[in-house]
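::Amino acid chain::
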Amino acid sequence: MSDLRKQLMDFGLSHKEANVYLAMLELGPSSVQDIAKKAGVNRATTYVMLESLKRRGLMSSVDRGKKTYFAAESPEHLLYIIGEQISSVEKQHNTLKSAMPQFMALFNAVENKPEVRFFEGEEGVKACREAMIEMARGEQLPRVFIHYDEDMVKIAKLEEEKRLKMTRDSVEARILYSIDKGLSLPAFGKNVEVRKVPDEVKRFQGELDVYENFILVAVTSPRPSGVIIESKEVAGLFQSFFDLAWRCAE
């Protein structure tokens, strides 16, 4: 019986609805009192369950003299209901499918929609930064917010030649940094201006590079990961945040 109850609940009946329906299947046409006793549900709740089953087409009633008897509809009606639901879903699917080109046209019509790319793991971060270097060609050099730990210094030294080449004939880049004790700053191009984040600012990890049309966010711990967001509007917002922070740096 518990398996049948589970099947009815998977169909969408509540626990008490399933108990009442199973009780009616066993009893045949019966009074509310008998159904309630068989189902283990109080009489007032049984009335509520019967009304719910009636709305689903799973119960009928008949008056015999002064008494009303309730009976379950054939279990085959469950298959009929499922068939109707399947038919309705298929109709909705076909209608939505036919309208999809119009929905997609509206979706694709949005201008300057941000494009977001995620990268994970050491190789992912490496790919993220390589993509950033390629995307940055021809753009104004970034505003950078970075904490130099051993991992970040190592990455910076590996990229040193590329960065120096990019900054040699470019407009000024600005870097706001903090750095772990005992580490030295990497080399920068002649047009790079550097300021240190005040010591009283809460310690942070990672790097934020803000270009004219995109931003890059990268962290090395606890798991290396990075994200590139291509959006002139998002980049402009972060440029404003950076400029405010720049005024407070050393």
